[in-house]
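2 proteins. here.
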Amino acid sequence: MLCYQCEQTANGTGCTVVGNCGKSPEVAGLQDLLIHSVKGLGSLSHHARTIAGIEDEQVNSFLLQALFSTLTNVNFDDERFKVYIDHCTRLHKQLAQKMAASGKKMPPTPQLAFFGNMPHPMDWNSAHAEIDGVETIPELVDVSMLASLTVRREILGATVAGLQELVTYGLKGLAAYAAHAEALGSRDPEVFAFLGRSLWFLSNEESTDVGNLLGMAMEVGACNKRVLQMLSEAHSDTFGAPVPTEVSLVPVEGKCILVTGHDMHDIHQLLMQTEGKGINVYTHGEMMPAHGYPELKKFKHLKGNYGGAWYQQKKDFSYFPGAILATTNCVIEPMTMYRKNLFTTGSTGLPNVAHVEKVWGQDFTPLITRALALPGFDARGVARAAAAREGRKTNVTVGFGHQAVLGVAGAVVDAVKTGKLSHIFLVGGCDGHEPQRDYYSKLGEQLPKDTMLLTLGCGKFRVYDQEFGTLGDTGLPRLLDMGQCNDAYSALVVATELAKAFKTDINSLPLSMDISWFEQKAVAVLLTLLSMGVKNIRLGPVLPAFLTDEAVQVLVDKFDLKPADVSNPDQDMLKMMQRHTESSLVVSSPFGYGLGITGARSYTQKAGGGTYGTSKRPANMRTARLKMRAGMRWLSGVLHCGSQHLPREEDTHEPDAFARGSRAAAHQGALQRTEDEVAAAERAEAAELAAAAAEAQRLAVELQALERLERRAAETAERVEAECHAAASAAAEVERQAAASAAAEAQRLAVKRLERQTAERAERAERQAAECVEAEFQAAASAAAELEAQRQAAERMEAERLAADERHAVELMAERATAEAADKYLASVCLSVSLSSPRPYEQADAEVQAKHQQAERLGGQGMAIGCSMQQQDGTELPLVFKCGWFSNCPADKNTERTRDLLCEALMMRDVECRGGLPGVPRTVLRALGLVKSSKPGTGYPVVWVDEEGRQQIRRLLGFLTERMSCDMSVLLTERPSSFPAPEMLPLMRDYAAGITSMHAIGIAHNDGKLQNLLVELDASGRPVGLKVADLGVAMDVGTEVSSVGSCNYTSPEIVVARDSRTKVETPGDV
């Protein structure tokens, strides 16, 4: 196992034993195998679309659901993944058949080294479709080892394999958003075309180039923007544009259902089905924005939101006293105490958890029944929920979609221009349980009062219950929640429109994006932002494990992508704002430490008090504080001394010169006193400065000592860090080698297991074949002995008529020059059966010629004649008389019970057509009667020379027979009235195959009664095969119909005819 598609992957490198999400190695393997199969189906859909113009809607929808099912925390059910894999290969087979029927040729499948021992995805699908789901889950898990990421990473290297996964994860997120849009009836052929093209890209040599991979990643982002737009428009068209709405976080008394996930279509269906049933519906996690949609909020029983982000499910669901519906990601393996209360739907799945199939008009009856059986919230439960929120907000506001935000865009622009709004922060994406994600909570707490915060996705739960208030006197809320991650398009629209308003681009706006990622939807949104050229995005809490340092550096160089500094959210905030601040005026003090006095806004005030300086802080903070204190004393001294010498305003406006002189004398004395005071103050200041200088010198010595200690500590830390890095590298190398060895060993064991299974199957097949051959040999020997006895008996019976036969044989040889002509005529005769009476020669010969033409079209295979033949013990032996080896069933069916008998019937001129002979079937006699009435002496000539040298001639009619168990009439008579469908369907399939083979050569059977359908039974008496027999009244297409077949059966074309004579125009008429 190797899985690193989500942010919480083990050790920041990959889950190799079990997923941190709870995914088992078996499920991880089946997901790898499904992705391999999806690549094949997507590639085939791309070729079918571009070469043959075939658009298969079923394939398109399946690709979305299959990719969606492999997202993190969506599906943990191995049985469901087996169904997905089997269905994928069946769809591949159907689409390949459509492609073949179109007459267009597929391009050759590339043979790529990076798939290792695993066939190309298209070849794998074709091969797996042939066995049609007979493999067990353990067998599929064994095969999945060959399709694992470990194999590709070993062959391609970490960078290329990681970029392939970047494209794949982006496609997973894109497919999830597109599946939500499709549920609301929104589809775009161009999106499906891109999906097929990108899956084909991942299945050919182009995907081994780093440049191609980065280019495709940008294409994924661009296509995802279109998908996000489709989803946003579908939400607004279906439920109305979101409006700001206050949502209660405290429940009310009554029965209840909790809905988690993302799917608005599902909650709408549930609200309609629960209306008037006394059940209150609550949202959880990313479903909270549902309250802002007018068509959803109109349901009075949509009461509020319960609980927090997705990762708190076990706590939230344990206390919830009702039923729970998980619509999409994210789901977690449930606890026993609420497992029976939990239901999944759509792509989600959990082992041993009830699932509601997602179809239009999906039925939530089991969920509703469970909710009514559970207690719901009582007064105590409501009080407990209210107490849990004590000291925190009990209501929040949602519904600030782009329509609502753009409605106040003018006020936002004015606030920026007037300096009331200094910066906008966008915190979007996912939440998780890691402590580092507290970074986003602290960032919200420290934002200045003149900033705004936009939230998107479940990352909102880090700040949604903080008090932000309004932006000064503008009345604008400082916290605006724009909805789910599904509503990311709203943020793109707002950013684009603000850029237009300021006549600039997004990167020049006072806007910073701090993205919190967790799974593949966030990857798709990030690629969308990068495809739009957005720069300076912060990504946290850690960078993706599937991107190597080399790949990350490319993104850093091109897009200035930055990792979030989770340890210092205050510094991250200042760096984000610094790009848009005005320059500061710095006044220098004699102590060399800058006192920041900004010309506009220094952004040094936190929302909660305290300062953050914009210049570099000294390493020794104690020294800095002392210098700052001394600097402030210096500044206050300057201001104090200056104020002593400033003239008073009244001195400049005194009208009386005497008064001015008196006041001047007084001032002179006061000035002298002031000078003495100043001198004393200067001496005191000089002493104080000397003391300060001494203190400063002492501190300088201490500082130098501290700096030496710091340098030594830094050197030691660097040395330790280097040693740790070397040890970590060595450990990583050992782990990589161990993983490679384990993967190679697993691959070797898988191949060995497959070889062993193949050998065992081959041995079983060989043993069964040998047993069948032996049984057939014994049966053939018995049949040969029986035939020899019959032949000897026939020779004795024929001896008395030999002389008369010789005369007829001579006449026959005169009419037919060669034995080949006789063979051809005999084939025609054997096909003429079920005649009710002798016919004149001309009429009979015409019918024989028609049957002869049918035999020619059959290419020598022949047609079947049904009858029952008396055996010596008096029992009837159901037979199929055939000319050649024509069969309407697969050649290997009933092999063990098939008996091929040769019946030889001597042509007797005095045999009456309607008479009977012991052991000779009536059908045979009717055929012989036709021969007799059409031409005297007809038969297969056998010529030899006897012991006396005379030429002897015998005429024999030969019939190849195949033993069957009974006809359909007997079977239905002996069986109960209820005939199981699993037994009847194979028989109907065989019947259709037989009729189809006749129609293909232009022959209409015209006599499909039950007695003409012969059935083969196995040892337990179950029917295992059916053959169509008795073509006595079969006709060519285009022939006028003058008979109705058997007395108990009338063919359809006769029933619908306006008169007694009609014409068979096409095989479909029959």
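next one coming up
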Amino acid sequence: MVVLELGEGGAQFNYVVSAAKPSSVQHSAVGHFTSTEDLNLVISKSTRLEVHKLTPEGLQGVLDVPLYGRIAALQLFRPAGEPRDLLLLLTERSKFCVLAFDEETGELVTRAHGDASDRVGRPVELGQRGIVDPQCRLIGMHLYDGLFKVVPMDERGGLQEAYSMRLEELKVIDLAFLDGCDTPTIAVLYEDTKEQRHVKTYEVSLRDRELVEGPWRQSNLDAGSSMLIPVPGTAGAVVVGESVITFISANAVRSTAIKPTMVKAYGQVDADGSRFLLSDYLGNLYLLLLLREGATGVSALKLEPLGRTPAASTLSYLDSGVVFVGSSFGDSQLIRLHSTPPDPAQPDSFIEVVDSQPNLGPIVDFCVVDLERQGQGQIVTCSGAGADGSLRVVRNGIGVVEQALVELPGIKGMWSLRKTYMDAHDTYLVLTFSGETRVLGMNAEDELDEADIPGFNSAALTLCCANTQHDQFLQVTATQARLVDAMTHQLAAQWEAGAAGRITIAAASPTQLVLAVGGRTLIYLELGDGEIVEKGRLTLDSDIACLDITPVGEGKERSEAVAVGTWSMEAHIYALPALRPLFKEALPTDVIPRSTLFAQFEGDTYLMYGLGDGQLVNYRLDPDGPTDRKKIALGTKPIALRTFRSRGAAAVFAASDRPTIIYSSNRKLLYSNLNENEVGHMAGFNTAAFPDSLALGKQDSLLIGTIDEIQKLHIRTVPLGEQPRRIAHQEGSRTFAVTCTQATMGQEGTDSVRLLDEQTFELLDRLRLQQHELACSVASTRLGDDPTVYYVVGTAFALPDEPESTKGRIFVLEAQGGKFRVVCEKETRGAVYALTEFQGRLLAGINSRVQMYTWKEQDDGSRALVPECSHAGHVLALYLATRGDLVIVGDLMKSIQLLAWKGEDCALELRSRDFQPNWMSAVTVLDDDTYLGAENSYNLFTVRRNADAATDEDRSRLQTVGQYHLGEFVNRFQHGSLVMRLPDSELSHIPTVLFGTINGVIGVIASLPQAQYQLLESLQEAMRRVVKGVGGFDHAQWRSFSNQHIAVTPARQFVDGDLVEQFLDLKRDRAEAVVAAMGGGATLESVTHLVEELSRLH
């Protein structure tokens, strides 16, 4: 086993991967995209596109694909010659594409793509727009102030060359195509230089390539007008303001006053546009009714409140009252609207929540803690905004909720039995040990008790046990197969192995049984009513190691084939009942297969082999046989495979030293580890008292429990009802300190510091701050020689008439007996943006200074913070990180600076700095010489100091070594890991940093040795050539670093783990093509192994 260590180069080669994908929803659209019958919901979550279809059970995922761009706009449209909708996407870097869905392959097809960016021009401030004319004559885009870009379109949706038209209005608030005009017409809502808002219409003349004065205009609208809603068939639009909603067309203006609010999203309910849903910044949902007169007129408007949801960024009305509420600041929801309140306790709410999708975004801060104290990190995030604010506890893997634990050493196998064949629930649990079999059953009090089935041979080891048709139990021992009547519990039939030898392996279906007898003989038996009939036998070339005849398909009771694994490491499939060979292949291993299983997920059938060294081999079964063989390491000990159902979905349990649950999503196999170790045997145990439970056989105990929902990450939500801003954890007092703000857009509220219990998250105490005082930072630390661990909170006074804070406070708090005690309070001359401990002192970033305090005992015995030294000359010192004697400062505008502490002179001095003008959003230290930063154009970069350089100038410069466009705004880096680092892993010594972003991404940055990094870089290059991005977008362009000050430069010394890990999903022939494109002696096995190891980092 080679354990990888970082070499000379230190931490300058980095692997970036997302542990949690973006979950903030920005845009959605509804239409017939995948087929003419399906109603689809298309959702964009920053850099990912999801397509769902509406089924009677709710939304069902069809596609979830990554995009090489941040989606700025999406719209479904249908040209005259198309049977289904097409999808227009526009990215923030002004690339656009038109996508269609191919029903045969189930993949997206790019119909057209292009780059709409111009060399000159000032990018729009209020968001890019990409809109399609209702008659599909053209696509319009507003990307630069004063320009409207037009892409003409033919009947089939083919795009022609794009060109720009001048638009007089420079500050556009919103624009939309009007519906019901002979020539394409846009309405433009804009603000003039005097901050007055007006709306104007233009006809788009494709012949003259210019905008011509349109049918109507309206000046001096409500000051807060922010949204245009085109009304179908009227050639008019609704303008939504803060206190008035107005319908305007060429022949009418109709208004209605509303209670002042800010509407953020709308969704059209009816095709004729008589009803719209509106959602405001607080999440209040309204129904806007337009009373129509004639085909084109509107006589009145009416607004009715419906209830509250998380604050919506997009609304899509699906069908029969079902609405998708997409949120960037809270969870997204699928809701149903009712005509009367569904819950009598809430008489003002007409909303029923059907389903909720958790959203971690915006992650403003987070900390990494090990709450269970088992060596597995969990992340606690400050998520959400306003009233949707919450803490989210995120951990990797699937947790087991224990319901019963029995000490039972030496379990050799376990099966659950139902009382009768058709019973919904399990009643018995059969456990076998060497030389005996015991039965546990649910008694009348719904407790687990010893039970007795007289027809069973209890003095032998059981090889297989099952419910069979005709209400019988099957038991197979080393010498015989027994059928027992489920009613009388008496023996109904038996079959003796006799002189053929001992039975070594057995597998059963409800009507069939296969046995390995005397090592090599495969015997096929059919199970009837009180009879066991031999139907065939076959002698193999080598000993049989495992068998399976699980019937595949809903409600099937017979298997058409038997899967065999042999001691000569071969996989066989034989047809039943004739035992005709269908398939034979050497397994890619020199270890014996210990378990095999047929499993079906989402309509696809798989054949799996669990090997003796913890590896799993799986095949997909096509009509013409097994294909697409894959091998993945799950653990290091033999694997035992079993199917079970969880919340109605099929799953496979792979028991070993690292038990894994295998499931499928979007027709891809996914593997999630169970947060238990060393599970040897497993049986589903779905009883009336313990529904959906599993029985797990461990080394010396039997555990019965339920599992969390099957997914890679488990998320627990702690709603706060206000927005959390900063969090710190304290091991000693077992608490969290969380700073919260009640302030929302345009409203003031007081800030406070909450003290929460680390397990229950209940509120223990709360320190309220003064009016206009904001909590900016919190840390948990020891100070000086004082043994107590304190919480330190930094605040700022944001007075309405001051452009910048001129005063703040630092509190030193002790958490004792569930209460805060203020030990010391210190006034500062500015906002305390950052706090960190530094060699027993306290370091604070206060406005443009980095200030150091010591913790001194006063004459009266109390302690106080005493200023020791400071370093000025920053713009705003927002972020601090320390290493040894060095302090790394992340500045608002001046990138990263490196200060050194001179103990003898009691001074902080500037050692070196990065001269690039990066606007920082987070910093951290990777090693003594390498520092990582994130900046506000969604990039990551690393800088290195040259302590050994010859000249002072080189020593004073931090050299940029790595650059990468992440496409996500990072708010915080923390050292730590989401997964247990197993000592047997090659990557157990690889340092990792976690980050959290506005869109709810949790990412991992792993610093790799140069050799592995170079291999991954060539793999990334090969993947770019083989795996094409959706919409024709280019991966290398997407990952290249760029911001307002620096021209586009290709990414370097960072590799994209999200792309690299797609290698594991490729079909075998494409994976081989990637490895061939890499060259350099790489093999499929070695590359797969490295990528699997890396995928275990999250």
